[in-house]
Structures are given as structure tokens and as C-alpha cells.
Amino acid sequence: MTRGLNKVMVIGHLGRDPEMRFTSNGRPVASFSVATARGWTNSDGEHQEETEWFHVVTWGGLAELCKKRLQKGSQVFVEGRFQTRCWGGPDGERHYRTELVAQEIIFLNDHESPDESARHSESHTSGVDRP
């Protein structure tokens, strides 16, 4: 049996407010984009910066928390897995999107009281197994 690992950890800022929708059976799903930036100095001594964008998807209670507590600019730690979806467009063209399916989120600039945790996972907030 071959083994594999699909684990992603990202710290960044939301590029837009979370968007919430519900599946046909009523399960909440929220999505938002997270930007990470890295900087370096090139061989000419000039500062360079690169931004990478991640499309994040959350499910169940975690989706509801994200919709309620996150907004554009919020800083988060997201842990999850990559998943690539494929669908056909109205013109018959195939479309692909790689998403970071969140299993845990830590709200880094959250202003909760010290006795409350800013760490939330999909399985703990929804009472159901991850998708």
C-alpha cells in the first residue's frame, strides 16, 4: 500500500469577506480567499515581494464561525488539505479550481476574552466528520 500526505498550513489575511451558502441538504459551506506574502532581496540588493492567494473552503459549524467572525483583512492560520474540483462550464469548457479545504482555523487577530479559545476545527464545531 502506498502512503500519501496532503496537509497544508497557511498564515495570511483574508482578501474578501467569507461567502456563505448551503448544500442541497442544508449543510453550511463558507469560502474566502487568503493572501500570503514573502519577501526577499535579489542579487542587485533590491527588495522583492510575492503574494500567493489561496481559495479556502470551510464546512459545517466552522463555516458558520468563519462567516460570523471573519472579514476582509482578518489574519488567520488555516490547516487543511488541497482538493482540486473540476466542472463543465455552459460553453462546454472544463474548469478547475484547487481549494484549501480547512480542517482547523485559528483566528489570529481575534479579540476573544483570554479564557476563550481562538482555535476552531470543523469536527469540533459541527459534530460531524469532515467531508
Present the secondary structure layout.
Layout: E1 8-14, E2 19-22, E3 28-41, E4 47-59, H1 60-69, E5 75-88, E6 94-107, E7 119-121, H2 122-126
Parallel strand pairs: 4-6
Antiparallel strand pairs: 1-3, 1-5, 2-3, 3-4, 5-6, 6-7
Q: How does this model look, in words?
A:
The protein has 131 residues and is mostly beta strands. The protein has one domain: OB fold (Dihydrolipoamide Acetyltransferase, E2P). It has 2 helices and 7 strands, in the order ββββαβββα. The chain has a 5-stranded mixed β-barrel. A hairpin with a 5-residue loop joins β5 and β6. The chain is globular. Mean pLDDT is 87; it is low at 113-118 and 124-131.
Give a quick precis of the structure.
By secondary structure, the chain is mainly beta. The chain is 11% helix and 53% strand.
Q: CATH topology, what is it called?
A: OB fold (Dihydrolipoamide Acetyltransferase, E2P)
**Helix-strand sequence:** EEEEHEEEH
Specify the CATH class: Mainly Beta
Number of individual domains: 1
What Rg, in angstroms, do the CA atoms define? 17 Å
Known CATH architecture: Beta Barrel
Provide a count of the helices. Answer: 2
Main β-sheet, in a few words? 5 strands, mixed, barrel
Q: How far apart are the termini?
A: 23 Å
CATH superfamily: Nucleic acid-binding proteins
Kindly report the spatial arrangement of strands forming the biggest sheet: 1-3-4-6-5
Shape by Cα distribution: globular
Mean pLDDT: 87
Secondary structure category: mainly beta
Q: What is the subunit arrangement here?
A: single chain
Low-confidence stretches: 113-118, 124-131
Number of strands: 7
| Fraction of residues in helix | 10-25%
